[in-house]
Design a protein that fits this description.
By secondary structure, this protein is α+β, with helices and mostly antiparallel strands. It is built from nine helices and 21 strands. The chain folds into two domains: about 130 residues, no CATH class; about 270 residues, Sandwich (Jelly Rolls), CATH 2.60.120. The strands form five sheets. Strands 1, 3, 7, 8, 10 and 11 form a six-stranded mixed sheet that branches. Strands 5-2-9-4-6 form a five-stranded antiparallel sheet, with no helix packed on it. The protein has a four-stranded antiparallel sheet with strand order 12-21-15-18, with no helix packed on it. β16 and β17 form a beta hairpin.
């Protein structure tokens, strides 16, 4: 009996030792991983700034369908190394999310490093809406990539993470068109309060003494812009609602409530040009141009979202490149087709469909889309005629929608039209409807056409 008990205690003690060694080994491996260069990138950069709800935390985030990237610590390394990005420009440039030994060919480096950011349009810098990484943090990431981007081991000086020098300002204004070849209009620097969403309008002259024909336009903005649009007003706008020139009309009061008086003119807006991306350079097909009358005015609309705890600066430049009237055979007109009947139930996907028809024969030369963050997929189909039901436009990145030009144009006869079919993924606990803030939703087809 004693022998049995001795053996039992011996075996029990041995098991305790083995289990202890196992857990010690596991804990030690975990500590080593967390103390590694990549471990520090995870805990100091990715987890607090990227792997947050609504961004890159899980496949349940409403933005996942756009970026297909989860940066939660259990999967982030495998999801970064030698993985092709979703951003089309980055794919065309043959970038990877992280390409070991090549920071310049790694999209994550460009997204975090503002100084490189506008070399190509890879979308907004990250973290979106938050304060950018410091110079030391970016350099820490760069050195990790250049050292082969290992998952384990120390390959960069951790003291770099304590260098909180802000990244240098690198926004370069657009140079104006050559004299006699166009004009430039500017919204000069303005501020956006901490943790605030600022959207405003200002009605102002474009500065053209004579009629002009615009064959190309450029728009460039500082980071954290949601969109910029130039609007005209419908001829039916009452004089009472037509805004005073050069007066900034914020649609939100300082406490975040809506300024209804400043919002009333919006009911009479007619889209002219606009973009959601930080930079857009759009060229109309040969012979096609937008016409602006002499002494034209437009309602300038800028929308910025600031999720930081400090004030940020916005700024917008617009170049209108002109062509002689003799070169113009077709006058471009803007599409602005909105589905405002949105009722997106909480915690569910909804497909919202609306048809639009035209009363004249038209040729569509370009299409783009506009939704807010719950927009998962935007499809545009032809309605009626021999191409009925044909999909002509698809976008899955609400923040950087593609601007598609059609050559030859899409010809539609009177009575035919377009259908918007938008999939929304409402991950919120409340119903969402059509509205003006980034927390509301929209579903708009923008684009250009000319009459046959």
């Amino acid at each position: 009996m004693k022998t049995f008990l001795h053996r039992y205690h011996y075996i029990s003690l041995l098991l305790v030792v083995i289990v202890g060694i196992f857990f010690y080994s596991c804990n030690r491996q975990t500590e080593e991983l967390e103390e590694s260069t990549f471990g520090l990138i995870q805990t100091r950069i990715l987890t607090p700034g990227c792997a947050i709800s609504g961004c890159h935390a899980s496949e349940s985030d409403n933005t996942f369908i756009q970026h297909h990237l989860v940066l939660e610590k259990k999967v982030s390394y495998a999801n970064l190394i030698n993985i092709e990005p979703s951003n089309l420009n980055a794919r065309e440039e043959k970038l990877f999310l992280v390409k070991p030994h090549h920071a310049e060919e790694s999209l994550i480096y460009h997204k975090l490093h503002r100084a490189d950011h506008h070399a190509k349009d890879y979308g907004n810098p990250m973290p979106l809406g938050l304060e950018l990484l410091s110079e030391g943090q970016v350099e820490f990431v760069r050195r990790w990539i250049e050292a082969g981007a290992p998952e384990k081991g120390t390959v960069a000086d951790a003291s770099l993470l304590e260098d909180m020098t802000p990244q240098a300002e690198n926004f370069e204004p657009l140079l104006p068109p050559d004299e006699g070849m166009g004009l430039q209009i500017v919204i000069p620097e303005f501020t956006v309060a901490p943790n605030f969403e600022r959207e405003f309008f200002v009605y102002k002259k474009l500065g053209n003494a004579d009629q002009i024909f615009v064959s190309r336009f450029e728009i460039k903005m500082r980071q954290n812009s949601h969109h910029f649009i130039l609007y005209d007003f419908d001829s039916s706008i009452p004089d009472l609602f037509r805004p005073a020139p050069d007066f900034v009309r914020d649609i939100r009061n300082p406490d975040g409530s809506n300024n209804i008086g400043n919002m009333l003119p919006m009911a009479y807006h007619v889209f002219m040009i606009g973009t959601q991306t930080p930079y857009l350079d759009y060229q109309f097909p040969e012979g096609v141009a937008l016409a602006f009358p002499a002494d034209a005015m437009a309602d300038f609309n800028s929308h910025y979202v600031n999720k930081q705890s400090k004030e940020i600066v916005g700024e917008v430049y617009v170049n209108l490149h002109t062509t002689p009237e003799a070169n113009v055979t077709k006058i471009a007109r803007a599409l602005n087709l909105a589905n405002q009947n949105l009722n997106l139930g909480a915690n569910q996907r909804t497909v919202a469909t609306k048809s639009f028809s035209f009363d004249k024969n038209i040729s569509i030369i370009s299409l783009t889309s506009h939704t807010h963050q719950l927009g998962e997929k935007f499809i545009i189909k032809i309605s009626g005629g021999p191409r009925n039901g044909e999909i002509v436009y698809t976008n899955t990145d609400w923040h950087h929608p593609s601007f598609t030009t059609f050559s030859p144009p899409i010809s539609l006869q009177a009575g035919q039209g377009l259908i918007s079919e938008i999939t929304y993924n409402n991950t919120k606990s409340n119903t969402v409807k059509f509205g003006l803030t980034s927390e509301d939703e929209m579903g708009i087809i923008f684009g250009y056409f000319y009459e046959e």
